[in-house]
Amino acid sequence: MDKETFIRQYSVERKQTDSLKWDALAERFGDSELLPAWVADMEFAVPETVKNALAQRAAHGVFGYSIVSKDYFNAYKGWQVRHEQTEFREEWLSFSTGVVQSLYDIIDCFTEEGDAVIIQPPVYYPFFYAIQDKHRQLVTSDIQCVNQRYVMDLEDFEQKIIDHQPKLYILCSPHNPLGRVWREEELAAVLAICEKHQVLVLSDEIHSDIVLSGHQFCSSVTVEKGRFLDNLIIVNSPSKTFNLAGLLNSHVWIPNEKLRTQYNDWAKEYKQTEFSLFGQLAAKVAYETGDDWAEGLLATIEDNYHYAKARLTAELPDVVVADLEGTYLMWVDLRAYIAPDDIKGVVQDKAKLAIDFGEWFSPEAKGFIRINLATPPTNIQQAIDQLVVAIKA
Ligand SMILES: Cc1ncc(COP(=O)(O)O)c(C=O)c1O
Question: Which cofactor does the UniProt annotation name (predicted)?
Answer without folding.
Answer: pyridoxal 5'-phosphate
